[in-house]
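Quick one, tokens below. Sequence please?
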């Protein structure tokens, strides 16, 4: 993958907090040499990680 740690962190933040898709990310960061197909794969991984961790917190549940 052509992404550095900094690049992955930046893309993940923009994807999660500003809800940018791959086309918007490519438009905003046009100086980078990212390919859309590779960026789609990375965003899909971020979405899968988010879905796995949602709802797993047990601290707020009432004990029976």
């Amino acid at each position: 993958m052509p992404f550095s740690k900094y690049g992955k962190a930046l893309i993940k933040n923009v994807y999660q907090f500003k809800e940018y898709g791959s086309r918007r990310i490519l438009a905003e960061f046009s100086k980078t040499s990212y390919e859309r197909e590779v960026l789609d794969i990375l965003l899909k991984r971020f979405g899968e990680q988010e879905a796995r961790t949602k709802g797993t917190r047990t601290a707020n549940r009432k004990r029976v």
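The chain has a mean pLDDT of 80. The chain has one domain: 5-53.
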